Amino acid sequence: RTVLCNDPEMTLTPVNIPVDTSKLRIEKTAIRRVPGEAFLGLHNLEYLWMPYNSLASLSGITFKGLRRLQELRLDGNHLISFPWETLADMPQLRLLDLHNNELTSIPPDAARYVKNITYLDLSSNKLMTLPQALIATWANLQAVPYFPNDNSKIILGLQDNPWVCDCSLYEMVHFLNFQSPNIAFIEPRLKCFTPRSLAGVFFSQVELRKCQSPVVHTSVAKVKTILGSTVLLRCGTTGVPIPELSWRRADGAQLNGTVHQEISSDGMSWSILGLPVVSYLDSGEYICKAKNFLGATEAFISLIITDSESTDDPNSNAKGAWSGKGNGMEAAAYNDKLVARYVITTSTVPTLGAGVGTGGDLLLPDVAQDSNPRNLLVSPPTGKQEPERIVRSVRVIGDTDQSITLAWKAPLAKNTTVFSVLYAVFGERDMRRINVEPGKTKVTIYGLLPKTKYIVCVCVKRLIPRKEQCIIFSTDEVASAGGTQKLINVVVISVACVIAVPLTLVVCCGALKRRCKKCFVRKPKEIQESYVTFESLSPGAKAKGVEGEYLTRHTPDESNRLLSARSSVDSEAIPKIEGQPNEYFC
Description:
The protein is of the alpha/beta class. Helices cover 13% and strands 24% of the residues. The chain is built from five helices and 27 strands. An eight-stranded parallel sheet has the order 1-2-3-4-5-6-7-8, with no helix packed on it. Strands 9, 11, 13, 14 and 17 form a five-stranded antiparallel sheet that branches. A hairpin with a 5-residue loop joins strand 13 (258-263) and strand 14. The longest helix is centred in the C-terminal third of the chain and has 46 residues, at 475-520. Mean pLDDT is 75; it is low at 142-147, 310-385, 523-556 and 558-586. The chain crosses the membrane at residues 487-512. Residues 214-306 form the Ig-like domain. Keywords: Cell projection, Disulfide bond, Endoplasmic reticulum, Glycoprotein, Immunoglobulin domain, Leucine-rich repeat, Membrane, Repeat, Sensory transduction, Signal, Transmembrane, Transmembrane helix, Vision. One of its GO terms (biological process) is visual perception. It is found in: Cell projection, Dendrite; Endomembrane system; Endoplasmic reticulum membrane.
């Protein structure tokens, strides 16, 4: 039996529907709600069509008992939600049409109830995204199709919705672009609605990032500075979408500073809390919180205020390196613009902007590791900068596994200028200082650890070193270089001996043979004198008082002497010309 109700003035669902009805059509009426008992007893109902009514909501018990229902059409109504859990009461349902309603979202639990649905039309609603659980269900679905001759495909209608193309849509875009062969779309060319930059762009043309929970990055867990200085606490975060950063104190006290937000070139978001002219009241725990729709994380930074330069104490704990888990970002610590840490004692206080890494003059913060040269956590009170760069060409000129000799140039320095040498193990917080006597530009540092990377800076005492005045060296490389140099020396000497010794023996034997012949055979003087000719060539003019040619002949004795091992430096027999040096040719 089929029952059709299509009176436009009907406001209530019909009653006393025959129990043997298999198809019920209630179309184009003014019905706004369906009572829970409206379809009670219709155990043979297989098709329930209620399109283009005025339905605004459905009860959770509306479809209870309809275990033979195969089609449910609710398109063209005003539904803002659908009771997905009621699908459990309709195990044979294969078609669900919710086209042209006002659905704004689908709960993740819906994935549990749509596994048997092979035709689902959600088009022309107000959906902005779909839950990942539902996408995963469709991607792995192997249900029997509603249409037997449709090559086992599941039909989905998702078009004409205001899709928000952000990370929450990543799974859906990937699902459409690399869809399963058993899925078919009523309209496969879906478009983005927002953001404005992607409005109207097809899903196949967008590249979205997968959503990620926020992760907070801080370079240090503890910051120690002197009273009256300006402190910059820096906190970075990664996540998709970009998390919001906020600061608060653990004790609930009000923040005595300003917050500056920025985004680095690598897409990382940073928040800088500037505390000008810190006092003892500013000491305590500071909490940086990163939050997006996936969750929130927090990081703690302890601020300690002291009244002296205790961080310059050579006996202080030098093992304050940041101990967080390293990844690609934190491991890139101390690059060319951030090389050391230094604290000075002056009363000048910089502005907040001065501490945010300009990269020119080095503001050496209490920091161990950071991926960005601008991530300065502490800006000490800036003393007077050098009017001109006094210290130049810092270099290591002599070294062992446990010591180095450091030299530098200071052409503009006076005899009374005192230099400070700051050094530390690369990556550690505290630096040790050595004051050099006035007028000296060389110092030897002892007590270094073998096979260890160090950083050292040289500057005028009480002034801030620049990045050009700092170098990084490794005692491991020093040891390797020393061993390599010794090996090179041995090889060179060995090769020289192999080549030079036989050649010297040949020359000496020749000279000895000629001397023996001289003793027993007398040759004409002309032949003896013509054995070898030495020419003295000079590119300059003839010296005053020297006459004649620059060709001089000598006896064989002199020739033999010049052919000996020292012939290259023995030139007493050659007249020297004033001006440019002579060259001798055999």
